[in-house]
Amino acid sequence: PLGLASSHRKPVRMKTFPMFLQMAGRRVVIIGGGEQAAQKTRLILKTEAMVEIWAPTLDPELSGLAAQGRITHLTGPITPDTFSDTALVFIASGCPGIDMALHTLAKAGGATVNVVDQPQLCDAITPSIVDRDPVVVAIGTEGTAPVLARQIKTKLEEALEPRLGDLAALAGRMRSAAAARLAPRARRDLWRWVFNDSPRRMFTSGAEREAAKLIKTTIETGEFGATKGGSVSLVGAGPGAKDLITLRGVQRLQEADVIYYDRLLDPEILELARRDAQRIYVGKAPGCHSWPQEKITQTLVAAAKRGQRVVRLKCGDPGVFARSTEETAALKASGIPFDIVPGITAVCAAAASVGQSLTDRGSIDTLVLTTGHRQDGYAVPDPIKDIKPGSCVALYMAVGAAPQIVEHLETCHPGVPFGVQIVAKAQRKGEIVLNCHLSDLAQTLVVHDISGEAMIFVRWSYSARTSDTSSTRALATV
What we know:
By secondary structure, the protein is α/β, with parallel strands linked by helices. Helices cover 33% and strands 19% of the residues. The chain is extended.
């Protein structure tokens, strides 16, 4: 057999939807007077809700809160009306049977209910929370892995400085002043500077007053360390999967006013961008360009001259067979500031899919990246013509040149047992990983309907010996 395609991943859909509820002045009813009810009470008292505890008796902690007037203690009969007009209801009587009966009454009253330790009765699930008020991070696992949620919470607690919420609150108080004095683009640059530059560092070090004064002065003068004109970032999206773009690439997407993007088969990668960023598909595919390169280049320049922050989102790495030189040359000629954000190129993604290193001490010590698709059409690239033992040649856009490559190698190096691997749609849905004998390369591509989106590896290791072409062809599927 020539090999088989890897299995398709089924789309994953959330069973719960994360959302923040307005709580100020709204009723939250908690049924129960013990430790479970106290836990929920501590959580809700972080909000501005009105908390009612319904229970015959209260434990000492809840009794103290009632005495302070922070909660209301009620002992009357519980009916569906008890639960009407509530933001949330927590049921924690401590008895599963009673909890189930109370759940029925609460639903009859139209409430959104959380029954402690009975997820099948919960409309709402309490997340793990990282609190930097007004910055709040909620972590949920749909009840499947609370230990994991706590681990994530711990990492976020370490990552987010304790005074971050105070800085966010200060920014909130200054938003109206910024809106009155600064244009929308300038406001985005301002807040980017506040949370990425001097003000945040000053807040973290304890210089809150100095940071506040600096922000106020900056709003008054409009002068800060942000780019006033437009700029362009050439961002490598990696092989296309959402989780294989770099953190710097994500940051550029979140800062962009407009994004020009290639064929990204995982559309979720664009969800990383700012919601109001304009997204423009430029549709570059081998041999079929929706936009010619010259038009793309001119558009990048024009957008930056309008003062926009532009992202040119490219598959793989911008510096590897991505025609970035034409774009950067035009940006330099126009005096437009730009940066290049590297990405995981297809050769690295494909090698990871195969589970094999691109080099191997004592076997492969030369790695060559080349393409089988030149400006004038498909051809055998020079690195294949000059291939020597100890080499791995990684071929981009070489499917159309496969018959010529096979003919050349079999003519010039008869009997050499080249290692040949094909990886189509590396690290994406529908990925195909195949090993084949050199003479079967063209047929394998046809049988599996592999066209442009594939990496082809040709390896000639030091340990490979010339073999009898009549020997058994050992083919493996990864």
